[in-house]
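P.,

For your records, the input lines for the assembly:
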Amino acid sequence: MSLDDWIIALHLLSAFALVGAVTVFSIILVVLRRVDTPGRVLALAPAALIANVTVLVGVLGTFGFGVWLAISLDEYGVWDGWVLAAIVLWAVGSELGRRTGVIMAGSFERAEQLVGQGHEGPDAALADGLRSRHAHVFHWVSTAAMALIILDMIWKPGA
Amino acid sequence: MSVLAATRPDSWNFPLLLHVAGAMVLVGAAATGSICSLAGSRDADAAWLRRVAFYSFLLVALPAYLVMRIGAEWLYSKEFGETASDPTWIDVGYLTADLGALILLLTLVASGLAVRRGSRGLTRVAGVLSAVAVVGWLVAVWAMGGKPG
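Structure tokens returned:
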């Protein structure tokens, strides 16, 4: 395998880390819409924590190895339209995903406080946080941006 | 993928999209089920978490596997339909896809039985099996990207 082959493999693995983590977050968000007890929120904390680490690896890896590839391969350049489109979508998706994370982290903190106070039953404020319209809109728009990146990477319009 | 794209006919794009997108969602859903299964064996809300894991496998991972596999076969028929021997990376892909299917089915059975019987042991088995499958699929991703051989 050449260096370019390795970069392609690492770029693809990073993309899997990113979209895999987005899938984990999607499942968590859908499940948490029906939850109002702190115990169940905290039960999903390990999945959220691992997805947080994975999404960071994916976000940095896709960008870093992607730009490296665009520079390294003769066929493409960083200023190609489809590459720029991918970078814009990547930035939008990453920022909206980060904002979702900030909102949902508040719900996880609230759940920890409730458990710390010995309150194990349903909590209206917790439920409201888990159903946050902003968090859900940010997440699904971010997911749509990631899907568009995949389409862009495969079709490479203008390449 | 990018090098391949330089010479790839447009007619390969849609099957490739199915293959890649299905595989990405498959990895994420199987990872979710695995984490919930392994965490579920310790947590106070274990029964609920077992259901989350089972439905992640059944409603997300299984359909994603089918989409990935259909895309793979479709793409293979276009790219290698007439050739006698396959490159190493295709062999790796088939090996992990076929073994992964078996492991995913075993995971579904173990996870389903764990929900029904409230078994922590079966929950752990489902978590470990799906984790093994995820590792295998990531090896396949590396092979698909780097195309060794």
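Two observations worth noting. The interface with chain A takes residues 1-3, 5-6, 10, 13, 16-17, 20-21, 23-25, 27-29, 31-32, 35-36, 38-40, 43-45, 48-49, 52, 56, 60, 138, 141-142, 144-148 of chain B (CB under 8 Å). Residues 1-5 of chain B have pLDDT under 50 and may be disordered.

Regards
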